[in-house]
Amino acid sequence: MREMVKGSNISLAALSENIDSVIVSLGWGSSTGEGDADVSVLLLDLNGKVRSDADFYFYNNPVAADGSVQLLGKTPTADGNEDRISFDLTAVSSEVDRIVLAASRYEGARFGELDCVQLALADGGGEELLRFAIDDADAVSAIIFGELYRRAEEWKFRAVGQGYEAGLAGLATDFGVDIDDDAAAEEAPDEAEGDDRTDMTVSATATAPAGEPRQQEALAAVPSPRRPEDEGRPRKAAARPRTAKKKVTLPKAAKKTLAENESWKDARLFPASALKSDRERETRATSVLLSVMAQVPEFGRRLTAAFGAPAGHMETFTEVTLPHGDTPRRPDGVIRVERAGKLWTALVETKTNGSALKAEQVQAYMDIAARRGYEAVITLSNDVALEGSPLVEVKIDKRRKHKVALWHLSWAEVAHQAQLLIRHEGVGNAAHAWLLQELLHYLRHENSGCHGFQNMGPAWVPVRNGIDDETLCQGDPRALEVVESWERLVRQVCLRLGGELGQKVLPVQRTRRGTDPQALRGRLADQFCLDGRLRSELRIEGTPGVLAISADLRTGKLRTSIEIPAPEQGYPLSWAKRLVRRLAEAPADLHVETLVEGDAAGPRGTLERLRPEPGDMLPKESTTQITGFRLSLLKSMGSTRGNAESGFIRSVDDAVHRFYTGVVVHLDGTTPRGTPSRSGATAG
Fold first, then answer.
1. Separation between Cα atoms, residue 295 and residue 306, nearest integer Å
2. Nearest to 138 by CA among 116, 163, 119
3. Is 508 strand, coil or helix?
4. N or C: more exposed end of the chain, with fewer CB within 10 A?
5. Is pLDDT of 676 > 80?
């Protein structure tokens, strides 16, 4: 390993043959254990400037679209913390001349307060190649540790150690990043958060950057960040950077466990294994959810914003007693949100497992809420609400001036919102992320009773039997019940997949606006009685087409498919070869059908057969116009016919997951932010 000194440089190729990708680690320690800093990376052109704001990577912009830069986050070390950055040097644009590696402190802290400030660089195999210790950091709030730069198509490293008193804002502006002052800077930080960092609204500028940060030590080896022709121009006053809190998400990879063997279970904040009755499950689930809503503002706001609640201070309560005639009522919970002296309040009624909401109970809470001036009653259960088909029927006294809204929330929606925050969008701090993770683990526990929609209803078995023996007639109300259950299942599949991907996944509604939803379900039920098929389509953000699901109860098969349009340019044989290459990792039993103009059917075959001969996908007549391709997978339905959680629900969830991960992710136009994991999905 090479020990570097300030100003020295070395060729990476002289240290290792495996330098196509490298990992740079910036580390520091603190005697109090509280010292910390944030890393940042700038890609500079020959003029020593960023080309655009996309060349500035920090905690709010951690990953390059081309994969050349990725901030991996902090790792505890024996001395303190180590922040790692992964570089794919083969993917770095030829327009980039050098890569600056820096770190900054916040809230007035200085690097002189930290110990063991250093940089380490390892090759693609993990072998450490060089190390550079900075022992004269002194009273600076930002440091350029070093830089990677090109010389004759060869990557080299230079040890810099240049300090800035102006922090991240001064460092960024010095390299052509324009920091926009924002009205949000006037907002006071949340008192509960002590992690206020500089958040940049950035754009590249061709003019002279603002402000002249004082260099701790000028090095001849470090090219000036300003061009000589810019020195004489007047400089604008440094803009005040906008302040915002760093978002925290949990790492995708599981941490190494210290358990002696696999039978040991992690201690949990919300244990579920001892729950024995539905009443215990309802009480525990309500308390767990409402407490996390109050402690994690982002999460509480997510769940209540759709119900008309303001953004404000939230308090939650359980097992409250409210007067109601001769018999006081005890709703499962109360939510109160205060903002600017105004109070918004809602009653909460919770059900777990297969327990259904009771109309009489919900009606009593609606009456209590109206008398006491509450804004809403929120019901929470494993069921999924449908437009035009309420879960419970309640009567509204129109003579009352105060109107109470009735809202429903599914446990699947709760899990969806928690997963979006901790896996994709981030929360205010690590404690909030941990609370959400504990909530999510509780909801997924087999004993919690909060598994989402898991019952196709009492009509499921007789309807399947009626399909088999062809005795199911149009107009049968049981067919309508099954169609409604199917719609609930599809909505839940959308929630689960969307939570895993961090993208919008929504059912496609191919009806005119204003169409009565119950009338539409009636028509679908009549069609279902004729052909025995349940159909739906999902639109997944970033995919080239809609994902279609068809459950054929006559054959017992589930079909998942997607239609992709033919390219606008090129030749059909090139299209076929390119599609086969894209599907190199797709299942061999994938059905590929060529779509052509008119009513004629195009060629079709399995991917296994088409891989050696992509030309078999082309019509025999060269004049036949190809409009696209349909990709399909078939899967057997769950065979269990009980009206509890049957294999059917699980098989639909698994079919969508397999098709997305095995087929859709490989198609052009698919830009997943995450990859769905079966460990994160609970069979419902």
1. 19
2. 163
3. coil
4. N
5. no
Residue 309: partners with Cβ closer than 8 Å, 6 or more residues away: 301, 335, 337, 344, 346, 375, 376
| Eight-class DSSP state of 278 | H
In the chain, the amino acid numbered 245 is: K
pLDDT in tens, 400-415: 667 888 999 999 999 9
Tens digit of each residue's pLDDT (9 = 90 or more) over 217-232? 333 333 433 333 444 4
Question: pTM for the whole thing?
Answer: 0.63
* Opening angle at CA 551, ends 547 and 553, nearest 5: 170
Q: Is the pLDDT of residue 107 over 80?
A: no
Which H or E element spans position 493?
Answer: helix 477-501
Chain-centre distance of CA 614, in angstroms? 36
Least confident of 120-124, 260-264, 266-270, 283-287: 260-264
Q: What angle do CA 42, 43, 44 make, to 5 degrees?
A: 110
Structure tokens, 443:
């909801």
DSSP H helical segments within 245-373, as ranges? 278-295, 297-305, 359-372
Judge contact between 290 and 317, C-beta under 8 A.
yes
Give the residue among 334, 404, 335 at the shortest CA–CA distance from 369.
404
Would you tell me how many other CB atoms lie within 10 Å of the CB of residue 684?
21
Phi then psi for residue 620, to 5 deg, are: -65, -35
For residues 150 and 97, the answer to whether their CB atoms sit within 8 Å is yes
